[in-house]
Amino acid sequence: MRASVQSRVFQMMSQILGYPSRIGPGNGCAPQMGRAFSASSSLGERKQDIFSSLGLGTYDGASGMMLRQECEKSEIAGRFMDRHSPAVLLLKNQCGVGRSKRMEISTNNQQQEESLPTVYAHNRLISVLMEGGYHEEAYHIYQDMLLETCKPDSHTYVRLIMGFCRAGRIEEAYGIFQDMKNQNCESKGIVYNAMIHAVGTAGLVSEALKLLDEMTEADCSPDTWTYNSVIHSLGKVGDVNHALRLLETMHVNGCNPDVITYNSLISSLGKCGRVVEACKLYEGMVEKGCLPDVVTYNTLIPVLCKAGEFSAALNLFKFMQSVGCRPDVFTYSSLVVGLCRADRVDDALRLSSQMTLSGCSPNTVTFNSWLDGLCKEGRVREAQVLYQKMLTLGYIPDVITFSILIDAFCKSGEYLEEAFKLLKLIVKKPDTVDVRTRDIIHNSFMRVGMMKQAKRIMRNARHKRVRLQNQAGDVKHM
């Protein structure tokens, strides 16, 4: 069985690298493997990780030393030689030819048993394969474990279930889950949690609820993590009432909700417009001794702003600071967006100085909100100054920034030259322009009778892109 695992590893390495002939096991191929490592520098970073983890994991002893020397000659070696890297962990955990040869000459049963690859080594290999999209190969490693004396543990099942579910292969994940129940695996709760989280993330909320009931019937008590997964899944589909009932179930079963539980419920209530209930839940969590974190405030403040409760939002903002919870850029941006939409642009701009004092830098979203607020009030000159400040500070405008300013510049009639400059910047990145932005730009120039000039700029940019693409194609085929 050991040889079959090694054979699969080498086959996968050959596939990743695109070698016409397979890399094979054996002490004599360390130089060959080293050259393969050098060639793998042309792969993407993720494939390099997988390739190196597989490669170093198949060698130890003298063979491993030879391979290490060869690898050190390659450009990518430094990234994988760290003693905490997956590759070295695999190397240390006995997935190698060196161990296999020691097994052949060993006469001591205990030594033979110690030489077998550990569950941890198999689990790490399964993780590497799953992360790289090699799901079938990971499943074959798992099947080998069932046939060998290396019994899968709860972590094996979790890695397989999560890997298949991330790939949208729910049926395979369920198959692994059924295997776990048949194998009488210890620590079933961990595997149930993984399965519930996976199906919930996939939007299969009814399946998550069934698993929750099944978990209870199997005398496997759900914990806070279990309930949080189901509550979050219910919130995503808008079934807040069911999520609130689960909160009551947690209290009845003596399972204490944590800040994640409350944050999820507050968010779900806010999305449904149930602002009063969201505020009451926030007060309830504080009364029960569950301290809100920055996510709690970042969840509730936008809800209050959207409901027009700006005084309550600002009071909550002040309160979070008074209890030592530091606002982040999302907190400030939420307030800026809310205040600007309520035509309180000056209040929103005053937050800029507070951000500077607290050491919190604004982001593009924050600047876009300030710019939009100023432009809607007709303060185009101030918006232009703020835009220049944004550039000076090193922030990169996005297509929303440009559409806000182009619309304002064209409406004012005084900044048409600036509008055309921004249009020339936009057409350099056509993939970032959506239908709504295109309509704004079109209507802005149409309004001032400048559509012909705008179309000329867009047409010239398109011709230039085609010319550059053709040139790149010619170079590629030389």
From TrEMBL:
Coiled coil: none
GO MF assignments: mRNA binding
Matches recorded under InterPro entries: PPR_rpt (IPR002885), TPR-like_helical_dom_sf (IPR011990)
Pfam families per UniProt: PPR_1 (PF12854), PPR_2 (PF13041)
PROSITE patterns associated with the record: PPR
Residue intervals passing through the bilayer: none
Keywords of the record: Repeat
Ranges: PPR repeats: 118-152, 153-187, 188-222, 223-257, 258-292, 293-327, 328-362, 363-397, 398-429
Taxonomy, superkingdom: Eukaryota
PANTHER family on file: PENTATRICOPEPTIDE REPEAT-CONTAINING PROTEIN 3, MITOCHONDRIAL
NCBIfam families in the record: PPR
Designated name of the protein: Pentacotripeptide-repeat region of PRORP domain-containing protein
Organism the protein comes from: Marchantia polymorpha
